[in-house]
Amino acid sequence: MKIDSVGIVGGGAWGSALAQTLCRGGRSVLLWARETEVVDEINAKHSNSAFLPGVALDPAIGATSTLADVANSDAILMVAPAQHVRTVSEGLKSGMRDGQPVVLCAKGIEQSTGKLMSDVIAEVLPGAARAVLSGPSFAADVSRGLPTALTIACADEALGRLLAERLGNRQFRLYWSNDVLGVTLGGAVKNVLAIAAGIVGGKGLGASAHAALVTRGFAELRRFGEALGARPETLLGLSGLGDLILTCGSPQSRNMSLGRALGEGRTLDDILGSRSAVTEGVYTARALQRIASERGIDMPITAAVCDILENRTTVADAIVRLMQRPLKAED
Q: Choosing from 2, 45, 93, 190, which is the catalytic residue?
């Protein structure tokens, strides 16, 4: 199998950054965006001011508003927001080939069904060779060529190795894994925990509280992952602990910055209304909490975030409730 051309589905910050790093590695790149103004700007001005301002994109990056155009690529990177992956995949279906790699770069859980993104792709595109790309990475860093390391997971190890080689470059190092479930889960769960970390910062609760929150949040990620069958070493790797540390530690994270705004007293509707980019953790939280409840997985931080987002409790009351839980041994 050759992977010389790559189609990117999603014209946001991450899709544009991936297009940039793939061009840097010598791949031919075509990016699909829903917004015609984004397509026109990339083609005419080699920039994406709406989602990745201040970055001069490689002139070799092409953009299209027709999904069938990207379906002809050797491999497809699915970078659409998690709640839109199903719809966009349906639009790709007629032009796909059996065995064509589809690399999931969206991080989340489908709210309406509780399905992971890898399961959505398996359902809509059963003939695709599925892979997942995830790990600690900000679009601004990747687009500038700063050193980044991520995990790419694929059940077919030979394909995983090939994808790591062809999608990576000297500044964009990819480690392969065959734990598709574990890599998928890490990227989804950390977004919800990042909202909690942001709330701690917005309320001014201090570095000690932040460290405790991230540590106990990782305990929830580990419990959830192991209950669903993920490997512990995957959760300790780049796509689990690594991504959690990054997302909970910088206001560049949309999820953490949303949590910070909640901690400062702003309403969810006000925060979301001022944003053009999707904050995945808001939608994943509800699905994650539903799955945890159905399976009896103890995830008190996740539950608190969900209650805050759905106006069942205040930030102040949620903090009191977490701190006054019955004492227990550390996991």
A: 190
